[in-house]
Amino acid sequence: MSSNDDRFDGRLLGTIAVVLLGGLLGILNSTMAAVATDTLAVAFGASLGTIGWASTGFLLAVTATIPFTTWAVDRYGGKRLWLAGLVIFLAGSLAAGLAWNVGSLIAFRVVQGVGAGLLDPLVLILLARAAGPRRAGRVMGLMGVVLSLGPVLGPIAGGAILGGFTWRAMFLVSVAVGLVALVLAARVLPADRPGDGGVVRLDVLGLALLGPGFAAVVLALSQSVEPLWPAVVGGVLLIGYAAHARKPSPLIDLRLFANRGFSASVAIMGLGGMGLFAALFALPLYYQQAHGHGVLAAGLLMAPLGIGGSIAMPLAGRLSDRLGARGLASGGAVVAILSAFALTRIGPDTPEVWPALAALTYGLGSGFFSAPTMGSLYRTLPPPMVAQGSSVLYMLNQLGAALGVALVAVVVQTAAGFQGVFWIAVAMNVIVLAAVPLLPGRPNARAVTDEELVRTS
């Protein structure tokens, strides 16, 4: 079906469903593992700091693998790489479920992270290529349902599994779901020919600088003890990549950022993600510490945040394909600001219904600026640059999430407490609102050329 057709046919719907299932797999697994930290520490007789490396190792492997995916998707083809990512993720999940000590668990979680590092940016790449520019907002809105519900459903599912089974079941459930995703992907995903995107030789030096550089910065943000050395190492590597990227055929062309629409899109997604992850991290702590709820109850009380996003993103994405991103994103940012402000007023005596309602409207507001922004991003990119743009977006989202969680960890321990965290969310969304006018205007059917990409609009 032509990408200029506004309708979805059965083949495209099947592709979207299969890709979203694979995308949900990684998000659920990582968030389920996060709620099992105490259980795993007891099971292996390890400290919380040591067992925390099971999650940190996963995150670092994801971050370091993403730049490789940028090149590999054109070298090997999207379908082949997707199937390879699923196989690696499944192997890591099975091995993690059979881990015999904390060292083996951390190692197998790293294997899972490599698989997720292939799958996560491929979700964006495959969907953008399948949908085409005219339907980018609609498809990114559907992906937003996964992004919104995954971080909320993960803790709920993890708490339920740990309540009735051993910790091993948490990883083995991923194996069962992953096998279904693998079989469906093999049957449904359309074959693509490697090299269609104009493959060049792998930029080995760029990969050695960019992947570890971002991973070191994320490590610095995710660790609360002495984060200076990884931050310095990461900064040096990223500066080295910036100098290296001036040469022909870099892994990721930094001229992407010369396009105002692209820069505004990734900035909005990064800042919005930072505020959203701060809320995702702080609200469960609030429900547990201020109201004495357990992990499962706190997860259930978080559901309105994900529900709001899952309602707003498909609707806003569909509307943005006709109306453009600016008006929808501005309205969403205003709602997110007001909702985050409402959360700054909560305290130990606040009935749970009020933060739940504020979380619902926060999800709605965030969804209304996220889906149109993602859609506009893919309307600014010519097809050969979709892989690079997707990797940049995902890496900056990882960075924003890590920074949001790090800020929460610091601020919660100060006199500002939970209110301070939500003031951070207010500030992030105010910046988002200020950046919205830089997004591209109303969509049109003409594709963006490579030459136009490097011009400011």
UniProtKB/TrEMBL annotation:
Cleavable signal peptide: none
Keyword vocabulary terms for this entry: Cell membrane, Membrane, Transmembrane, Transmembrane helix, Transport
One Pfam family this sequence matches: MFS_1
Keyword check for Transport: yes
Domain Major facilitator superfamily (MFS) profile per the UniProt entry, residue ranges: 15-444
One CC-aspect GO term: plasma membrane
One Gene Ontology term of the molecular function aspect: transmembrane transporter activity
Membrane topology: Multi-pass membrane protein
Transmembrane intervals: 12-36, 42-69, 81-100, 106-127, 139-163, 169-190, 202-222, 228-245, 266-287, 293-316, 328-347, 353-371, 392-415, 421-439
Subcellular location as annotated: Cell membrane
InterPro entries according to UniProt: EmrB-like, MFS, MFS_dom, MFS_trans_sf
Family as reported in the entry's similarity comment: Belongs to the major facilitator superfamily. EmrB family.
PANTHER family assigned to the protein according to its UniProt record, in alphabetical order: MAJOR FACILITATOR SUPERFAMILY MULTIDRUG TRANSPORTER MFSC
NCBIfam families cross-referenced by the UniProt entry: efflux_EmrB (TIGR00711)
Name used for this protein in its record: Drug resistance transporter, EmrB/QacA subfamily
Origin species: Nonomuraea solani
Highest classification ranks of the organism: Bacteria, Bacillati, Actinomycetota, Actinomycetes, Streptosporangiales
